Structures are given as structure tokens and as C-alpha cells.
């Protein structure tokens, strides 16, 4: 099922979403180039969220090693950069479709500045949850899944009666139907199962399918909490 658009009237152009989509596509094209040259694995390892490395650096800092503090700062940047990298065609396409369909109404309501804060904070906080949930994970975690989950959580809270025009492929026939927005809380989880389709060649793997990966779902709760904070009306 592919969501197309909602029935919410927006009063602002989704300028931030335009930029986010553009940046994500540009970086994915860069990843494809690195994949061909065999350099992608090093980049993903450097900029993806690796819970075990982050946790080790924090422990060393707390034990009195000041040099480890610099490592914590460097690894912290992965919480931001990692959400703009993607491991497969299906992951980036799925995330950007959800960003467009559900994000533009949230941006219209919050305004451009608050929406950007909401998006970045959601991705960073979800990354921290992943580190706490599975601190021994040694493979990098990348993608905007957490931020997209937060947008979905905020959207359902703000527009519980919204209807989503959706394409449902049946063999070679495509039909369009209206589906309640709340259904996509379920479909978001189902969609995660297909994010390995069209994977890039990343040695050592990426986006472990265990607890750390599914901690992305914490983004739904984070989105609800942040939207209550940023939009009090």
C-alpha cells in the first residue's frame, strides 16, 4: 500500500520537507557512488549510530579519561548525520513517502522552524533510545525511521480523523481508496519488514533486525510528547 495524500488543508508550503527530501536524495546518490567504489562501508561505520562504541566512550569518560570525552562528542554527531543516510532503496523511498504525506500537514501546523526542530530532535532522541535498549550492538544504525515514526505519532494525535488516499496494487491493477490515518500506525511496523529490499553493499551489515532496530518505534511516543510541547493549542 502506498499513501498518496491526505485530506488536510495546509496553509503553508512544506519548505522544510522540500529541503529534507532533497538532502536525503542527494546523500543517497552519494552513497550509491561510494557503493560502486567500495568506500560505503567505511562511511557508514564512521557516521552511523553504533551503540557499543558510543556506550564505551561514555563509560571511559565517566571513569576519568578526558580524551574519551572527545570521542563522545564525535560519536554524538552520528545521531544527527546517521538519520540522513539510508541502507536500501526501499528504506529511503518508504521514509520519504511517509515524510511527504504525513509531514507536510505537521509542518503547516507547527511552522517551518518548529517543524525542523521537531524532526531533528525526534531522530536524535530515537537514536539515544536505540543506544540504551541495545548497548552492545556493534553494527551501525542509519536511516530516518525514528523521525518518520515521530511524524506519524504527531500526525495521528493532531489529525485523528484524517483520511489518506492510498494506492493498493492487486496483481497488475492499481486501485485508490481512502484509509483512516490511524491505520498507518500498523502499516509503519509492517513496512519495516521490507526495508531490506534493494540493500546497498555494506560490509559487516547495517540496521540490525533485533531490539535496537525496532527501537525506532519509540519515535511514535517521542513524536506525541514533542508535539504536545511544541504545539500547545
Automatic annotation (TrEMBL):
Instruction: Specify the protein's topology with respect to the membrane.
Output: Multi-pass membrane protein
Membrane spanning segments where?
15-32, 39-58, 78-103, 115-133, 139-158, 170-190, 210-230
- InterPro entries cross-referenced by the UniProt entry: Peptidase_S54_rhomboid_dom, Rhomboid-like_sf, Rhomboid_protease_S54
Calcium listed as a keyword: no
One GO cellular component term: membrane
Q: Which GO terms describe its biological process?
A: proteolysis
Q: Keywords on this record?
A: Hydrolase, Membrane, Protease, Transmembrane, Transmembrane helix
Report domain Peptidase S54 rhomboid positions: 79-232
Entry GO MF terms: serine-type endopeptidase activity
Where it sits in the cell: the answer is: Membrane
Family named by the database record: Belongs to the peptidase S54 family.
Name of the featured protein = Rhomboid family intramembrane serine protease
Tell me the lineage of the source organism: Bacteria, Bacillati, Cyanobacteriota, Cyanophyceae, Nostocales
